[in-house]
Amino acid sequence: MNLIQTHTLNHTTNDTSPAKLKWTWFDITIYLHFFIPSYILFKQPFEFYITYIFIIAYLPFLVAKYPIPRGIWWILLILLITGLINVWLDNNIYKNFFKIYLNIAINLIFYSTVVAYYNYDVEEMFRRYLKGAVIVCIYAIVELVAYKLGMFNLISLHHLGFNKWGPAPGGLGIRVNSTYPEPTHFAQFMSPAAFVAIYSLFFKDIGWLKKWECIVIVFAFFLSYSSLAFTGIFIMLLLLLLNYGLIRYIFFALPVFIFLFYILYNNIQEFRDRMDGIKTVFIDEYLLEEKDKDVSNQQAFLARQWRVLNKVHGSPLVLYNNYYVAMQNFKSNPLFGTSLGSHEIAFQKYNLNYLISKWYLFNTPDANSMGLRIVSELGLMGIIFTFFFIRNYFVFREEKDYEYRWIISSSLLVLIILQLLRQGNYTFSGFFFFAYLYYLNKQMQKTN
Predict the structure, then answer these.
(1) How far is C-alpha 448 from the chain's CA centre?
(2) CA-to-CA distance for 220 and 202, rounded, in angstroms?
(3) Which residue has the higher pLDDT, 283 or 101?
(4) pLDDT tens sequence across 347-392
């Protein structure tokens, strides 16, 4: 059987029901990469996720059959030139640069051919993602039920060999993460599905999800008790306002925003701790205040560490530490940054670890945020590219247009913004695939 088959375009309008999706082994193994980033085969010289096997296996067939867009080669060429220059300037080392560069190159090329395999049918690809999201969210609810019944070990993925997976205490006993390593990851990659589910439940049923599937997705999304999920809700509401008329609904929306924040802040401990921590380090600049204090001896040094750790939640500490490093590195290398993979080196130069001790050294290679990593590693070049990519390929709601276009655009933008805020791995869980869909969705609107 020929692995690479030809698909036919099957767009839906507001007046027709979407065709039933058919799944092949190729479809399943491609989409697994978006939903099970919690199993790695080895960690050195890089983390090799089990689903990389399918990418490596399919890549030669796809590249042989489908053309690679010219823009991909230009992006890779620019990244290569700036990367080699920064290695020559001692801002980076070959190992760090090529580890990230090759990963990005493979992902860009692979997903450019995957979308070609699906005949650039954005709706079909997005609907396949939604079906996978339903399964993942069902498992998230099973996770909580099993915990409440004292049967958690029976469904624990850690016991099944998923070595990047672990339970997260909090919420209703646990914060669900389903097949993802952490609740934050689960919330980020379920955010497009949550947008569609919320829209279908409270605005208009567009036929992609059954009502019970919408309820499952929204329920599981909140069960993550992730501050990123709650941030996603605010972004979703803002995008709905933009599409339905920001000026028209702003006076209604502002009280709703304030009320939701009040409810979350006063009832969700995890949310409150993170909001307090963010205020303390970013607005009050507490770490910089502690940084400027003289420490006369080892006892005073350790006392300062405990004072900081007792005052601020660990997550804002890690985020601010990487923010501080990224800003210092940007000031030294504003135009093109210090190249892919270099934030780890910048971290060694500028970090505030002596304030927060050895316990909070997480995410040092990836800056804890793709936005910060772009600032640090790619400078103004990366910032400008990201800004224009988001702005130029966003699809606003138009009455005469296919309704799915603006819904897909807004839902994917939620994921992109959350990636910029709290996920530093450029290619984690197939992120480039979703970025491709965001781009193609606009291109299809222009074409049609």
Answers:
(1) 30
(2) 17
(3) 101
(4) 989 988 777 665 555 557 788 899 999 999 999 999 999 999 999 9
What is the pLDDT confidence band of residue 5, given thresholds at 50, 70 and 90? very low
Q: Which two tokens stand for residue 44?
A: 């050195």
One-letter amino acid identity for 41? Answer: L
CA end-to-end span of the chain:
33
pTM of the model: 0.91
Whether residue 273 has pLDDT greater than 70 = yes
> Is the preceding omega at residue 316 within 30 degrees of 0, hence cis?
no
User: CA 31 to CA 53: how far, in whole Å?
Assistant: 13
Residue 185 identity (one-letter amino acid): H
CA angle, 314 then 317 then 323, to 5°: 145
d(CA 235, CA 191): 10
The angle, 0 to 180 degrees and rounded to 10, between the axes of the packed helices 52-65 and 25-35 is: 130
Report the alpha-carbon distance of residue 224 to residue 422 in Å, rounded. Answer: 15
Q: How many Å apart are CA 171 and CA 143, to the nearest integer?
A: 13
Residue 357's contacts (CB-CB under 8 Å, 6 or more residues apart) are 305, 309
- How large a percentage of the chain has pLDDT more than 70? 90
Q: How many Å apart are CA 272 and CA 263, to the nearest integer?
A: 10
CA distance 165 to 159: 9
Residue whose structure tokens are 């600032």: 375
